Amino acid sequence: MQVLKFGGTSVATAANLQRVAQLVETAAQHTATVVVVSALGGTTDALIEAGRLAAGGSAHYRTQLQRLEDRHLGVVRDLLPISEQSAVLSLVKTHCNELDSICDGIFALGELSDRTLDRLMSFGEILSSRLLAAYLKAQGVAHLWHDSRQLIRTDSRHGFATVDSETTNQQIQAFVAAQPCQIYVVPGFIGSDAQGVTTTLGRGGSDYTAAIFAAALAAERLEIWTDVSGMMTADPRLVTLARPIPRISYQEAMELSHFGAKVLYPPTVQPVRSQGIPLWIKNTFAPRMKAHWLK
Ligand code: ADP
Ligand code: ASP
Ligand code: MG
Q1: Is 69 part of any domain?
Q2: How do the pLDDT tens digits run along the chain, 295 residues long?
Q3: What is the DSSP code (8-state) at residue 178?
């Protein structure tokens, strides 16, 4: 068993989703694979913005939601052969209608609670993971999509929920045992509390989702696929002389991420460290580049 997580840039366009599907198909040839997917790059920010606009009484939230819907529908059209599109287009539309209703409610009340914001944000990962699954299906790649909210149990601290590891591990293990499959596709970032209410794991939390699955399944490896080839001495977007760190300990990786290395969400390290699961950070756009192994 292995867990592969693909971040927002990796799944931002139809072409990128196709690249991801190819990587997944190849990787899953040697062992069963859980694929954790982030929202299409920029989606979570756009959802938050829509919620804030609605709460602030600005009807521009509708434009924002329309843009999100158009973007996802556009990806479906670019991604799938015409014969496969209609079911997925209507799935995206159903989710977007629900999103519209939630934002209409926020607008009517002039109020956005953390709980509602979690619900809003959850649509990003639900949609992106559905798109990847739809493409795998169109390619004839056997897989199982599952909603992580049914597996990851958290407390009710909306926005930064804490995972109940015991229940979560047990739910993940029971699910995989009951439904054996070579490829599982799940949305990152989201969970639910004991009442079944949607929660989120903190911004950047899809990395953490992947680590939770890896630990629960005693995976042989966790791979975080992103737009850089591993942890670097500084953020390459800010420091042109940033260099890749060839090998790094769990402890150093955790410290770097705490000090702002956005490439890894800090809570990700603990679950894999506790079981000695190797953690690789790989570049979706340069998969052959030497990646990093944190141990
Ligand atoms: P994803 O959407 O794949 O989760 P993120 O944007 O969350 O990707 O994280 C990747 C980004 O982290 C890189 O594009 C890079 O700009 C930034 N980053 C910040 N600090 C570091 C660092 N020390 N090493 C590598 N990347 C870093
Ligand atoms: N989509 C979420 C975010 O933007 C989670 C993630 O990408 O890891 O924070
Ligand atoms: Mg990230």
Answers
A1: no
A2: 999 999 999 999 999 999 999 999 999 999 999 999 999 999 999 999 999 999 999 999 999 999 999 999 999 999 999 999 999 999 999 999 999 999 999 999 999 999 999 999 999 999 999 999 999 999 999 999 999 999 999 999 999 999 999 999 999 999 999 999 999 999 999 999 999 999 999 999 999 999 999 999 999 999 999 999 889 999 999 999 998 888 889 999 999 999 989 999 999 999 999 999 999 999 999 987 777 777 6
A3: H
In a domain, 242, yes or no: yes
CA distances from 279 to 39, 42, 43, 72 (A): 21, 25, 26, 31
List residues near ligand 1 (CB under 6 A).
7-10, 38, 204, 226-228, 231-232, 234-237, 256, 261-263
Number of domains into which the chain is organized: 1
> Which domain covers residue 191, as residue numbers?
2-41+124-294
**Residue 43: which region, alpha, beta or left (left: phi > 0; alpha: psi -120 to 50)?**
alpha
Q: Are 63 and 53 in contact (CB under 8 A)?
A: no
- Ligand 2 pocket, CB under 6 A: 7-8, 38-39, 44, 124, 188-189, 203-207
- Does the pTM surpass 0.90? The reply is yes
Is the distance from CB of 96 to CB of 46 less than 8 angstroms?
no
The verdict on residue 65 lying in a domain is no
**Can you tell me which atom of ligand 1 is nearest the CA of 238?**
16
Residue 72 lies in a domain: no
* CATH number, domain containing residue 160: 3.40.1160.10
